[in-house]
Amino acid sequence: MFNGILIEKDQSGYRANLTQISEEQLPQGNVTVDVAYSTLNFKDGLAITGSSPVVRKFPMVPGIDLAGTVEVSTHPDYKAGDKVLLNGWGVGEEHWGGLAQKARLDGDWLIPLPAAFTPAQAMAIGTAGYTAMLCILALERNGVTPDQGEVLVTGANGGVGSFAIALLHKLGYQVVASTGRAAERAYLQQLGAGEIIDRASLSAPGKPLAKERWAAVIDSVGSHTLANACAGTRANGTVAACGLAQGMDFPGSVAPFILRGITLAGINSVTQPKANRILAWNRLATDLDFSLLALISHEIALSEAIEAAPRLLAGQLRGRVVVDVNR
């Protein structure tokens, strides 16, 4: 038996409880992992609270990230004792995830834990930092360089936004952070934001084209914010879209694309090929200032995760929430 958060839905309703789970209940998979740390992401908050139908099967263990040690494996790439890492692949939605002391997974979803990271550090980065790195790789592929001008980061106080600012700053970019939380100005400046703007300047309906300002954008918000970010992007700039905190809609115009030649790069962190995942994590090992992890993240116990979920959704938690599943 082991501890885990189990989400159930039946005639009694939708509920998430911390409970004892039997190993016989684990789903199919060719690698069993003793989980050390997981995380609480926005998607996990939705799953735990039931405020959006992200869970596709019941019962479900949430947790889209995990890091731990292989206990048993029949997968050719892994053996008992190997340190591994997982982000995405529908884990925590369609397949039991990381918010439990054990997980049974398809080994093709895993990558080796890079030597640069402890399991706790890897989860402090998690899907958020990994997604931010995928965004930066997309900007680089499209030729965005620090000398071209300012890079806008929306949703700056969230996990993706926090890591995007830190990474861009270390790589030499001028970063403008968009946030609705003025009290976090000092935090964003510590990460490397050179300027902070109110998200209200981007979140309302805007014009098809705005004054050219951004050389590039990393957007985790969507909706009007994404449309306005595109409208204000300079000719031949790139906008990396990776989130939908404001909404899934895109109430924009084709004008920035056909009149200024900007690129809208969609970032799918869930089903990236293994080579891309390893590339992103290797870049994180070299391009991230590890001293910022304590600023960006904080740790909670598994027993605190259910209570923290609605606070995360309400924007009351800064940055990353790391979950020690063994306490």
From TrEMBL:
InterPro entries tied to this protein: Acrylyl-CoA_reductase_AcuI (IPR014188), ADH-like_C (IPR013149), ADH-like_N (IPR013154), ER (IPR020843), GroES-like_sf (IPR011032), NAD(P)-bd_dom_sf (IPR036291), Zn-ADH-like_protein (IPR051397)
Classification via Pfam families: ADH_N (PF08240), ADH_zinc_N (PF00107)
Residue ranges annotated for the Enoyl reductase (ER) domain, each copy included: 13-323
Keywords: Oxidoreductase
Annotated EC: 1.3.1.84
Gene3D superfamilies linked to this entry: Medium-chain alcohol dehydrogenases, catalytic domain (3.90.180.10), NAD(P)-binding Rossmann-like Domain (3.40.50.720)
Classification via CDD domains: MDR_yhdh
Enzyme superclass (EC): oxidoreductase
Record's keyword annotation contains Oxidoreductase: yes
Organism superkingdom: Bacteria
GO molecular function: acryloyl-CoA reductase (NADPH) activity
Protein name listed in UniProt: Acrylyl-CoA reductase AcuI
Organism expressing this protein natively: Pseudomonas fluorescens
